[in-house]
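#structure-requests
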Amino acid sequence: MVFSVHLNVQLKFYNLPYQIKFEMLMGQLVKNVYDLVDQTVLENYGKNVALNQYWVKLMQIYLQEESITGMPIQMGQNERLFDTDHISSISLDKGLRAISNHNAKLENQVLYEMQYDTVINNYQTTDIDYLVKLAESFGVKSAQFMNRYQATDMETNLDKELQVLSQLKIKQMPAYIVIYDDKSYIINGLPKYADWLDIISKISEGAFKPNEVVFDWKAVSRLLERHPHISSLELKEAFDVNDETKVIQEMAHHGLVSKRVKNTVFYKKPQVFDMT
C-alpha cells in the first residue's frame, strides 16, 4: 500500500503542531500468489505443495517484519491468507474501499483491523465472508457492502491507482508520496520517526518543527477518537514514552478492551470492531 502524505491539511502527526493529511493508494501486494511460489515445485508437485512451501516463506517474511518494526506478529496458528481458492490480495483492496467508501479517517481504521486480523488473529482476510463480517462491524450492511464491492467503478479505480504507481516507478511497499505546496517526493521503505521529522523539515525548508508531547489520558483519548484500536507500543512511540511498561500501567485504568500479544497490549474501545 502506498501512502500519500499531504502537509498542512487535516490530521495531526503525533507531536507536530501542524496539520497533515494521509491518503492511500492501493498497491495490490499479491496479484496472483502462484507468481510467487517456486515454479519448479509447482510444476513437479502441484499447487498445494507449492502453496505450503510459500506459506512457510511468507511466515518467515512476517517474522522479519516483526524484528524491524517491533510490532508483534503471530502467524500459522489459524487460517492461511492464501490457498487454492484465495490466490490474490485484490479482495483486500476492494474490501477496504467498499467499507470505507473513500472516507480517509475510516479507511485508516479499516486497514488497521485488516492488518490485526491477518497477523494476530490469523483470519483469512482475503475471503469475502470475512470482509462482509468486517463491514458489518463498521456499520455497513452486507447488501450495501456487496453493491460497493461489485461495482464496475471499483475495478476501474483500482486500475487507475496501479497506473499511478507504475508511472512513478514504485515497485516496493511501503512507499510514500509526500506532497507540499507544488513539490512532491517519493520515499521508499519504512522511515523511522526521526527520519520522518528530518524529511518533513527538509521538504518544508524548516517551516515545521515538532513540539514536546505529554502522555496523559486526555491526549490518549483524543488519539483514540481517530485511532480506536491501538497498541501500547504504538502509544509509546506516539508520545515519546521511554518505557512501554509505563503505557501499559496507565492504560489499565480506563475501561478499554485489551489483549496482550507477546510483550505488547492492544487496546480498543468497548463494542468497537467486535469480530467475535
